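User: Hi! I have a protein structure encoded as tokens and I'd like to know what sequence might fold into it. I'm fairly new to this, so please keep things simple.
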């Protein structure tokens, strides 16, 4: 397996991978391929991403952006997805490591993300050294049209 920067040609494959993985519990996302592609194209403009490739197949992806906070630059992971059959094979770990290496290059102060409270990935993130930030709370308000 190797990790590389994402290219424009990867977008459709990444969109399919994300739709497959995020349609499962606890996320249960309902969306269309065109909606995911639109989102990926947006992040391609404002962020960065890496893919994990095994035998020419994209088996994982991490998408992130860099924000300037008062403390300095911070990387915010927007999405991390690994194909089901490649979980527990260090794909996610290698993608996170790539982001953390990039963070050291740009001298980022932290790597942050949000995830579903019931996600099985919580154990994975804890093993990578991530902790719940006791000082921050993610808030959300649905907008009704």
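Assistant: Happy to help. Inverse folding works backwards from shape to sequence: for each of the 145 positions I chose a residue that suits the local structure. Here it is:
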């Amino acid at each position: 397996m190797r990790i590389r920067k994402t290219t424009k040609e990867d977008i459709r494959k990444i969109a399919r991978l994300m739709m497959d993985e995020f349609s499962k519990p606890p996320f249960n996302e309902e969306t269309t391929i065109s909606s995911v592609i639109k989102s990926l194209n947006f992040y391609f403009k404002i962020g960065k991403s890496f893919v994990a490739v095994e035998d020419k197949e994209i088996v994982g992806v991490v998408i992130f952006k860099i924000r300037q906070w008062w403390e300095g630059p911070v990387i915010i992971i927007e999405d991390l997805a690994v194909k089901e059959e490649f979980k527990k094979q260090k794909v996610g770990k290698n993608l996170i490591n790539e982001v953390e290496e990039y963070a050291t290059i740009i001298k980022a102060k932290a790597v942050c993300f949000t995830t579903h409270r019931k996600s099985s990935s919580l154990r994975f993130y804890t093993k990578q050294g991530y902790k719940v930030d006791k000082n921050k709370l993610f808030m959300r308000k649905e907008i009704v049209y």
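A useful reference point when you look it over: The chain has four helices and five strands. Feel free to ask if any position seems puzzling.
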